[in-house]
Amino acid sequence: MVLSTPLISVVDDDASVRAATENLLKSRGYIVQTFTSAEDFLRSPRLNETSCVITDVQMPVMSGLDLLAEMRTRGYRVPFIFITAFPNDRVRASALSAGAIGFLAKPFAGHALIEHLDAALKENRNGGRT
Fold this sequence. Notes:
Blueprint: E1 7-11, H1 15-27, E2 31-35, H2 38-42, E3 50-56, H3 64-73, E4 80-84, H4 89-97, E5 102-105, H5 110-123
Parallel strand pairs: 1-2, 1-3, 3-4, 4-5
Protein name: Response regulator
Keywords: Phosphoprotein
Domain Response regulatory: 7-121
């Protein structure tokens, strides 16, 4: 099922980042679901409907990079945008080589996230699962 309005999944263990990102995306007309962990996201009944994942890099148990790898292993090709409070070139390179559309350092400008999201959604028009 493809939704006419994209469903954006926000995965971050920081409640304030989840809330701010959700508010920004909803103000732009997106449908948003938020998750406190990668594990919660992977259990989502709407996993197949997700148009883009915006996730923190560093989270307890499963990192954002591990989440991307798991999604690819499961056959999902949905675009990922990473956000992190601890940016470094090695992590950025790992994220981008793994297929991330964007990599933003916290705090990030809302327009920068929207630019990455617009690019991700354009690339993902054929759906998130191969």
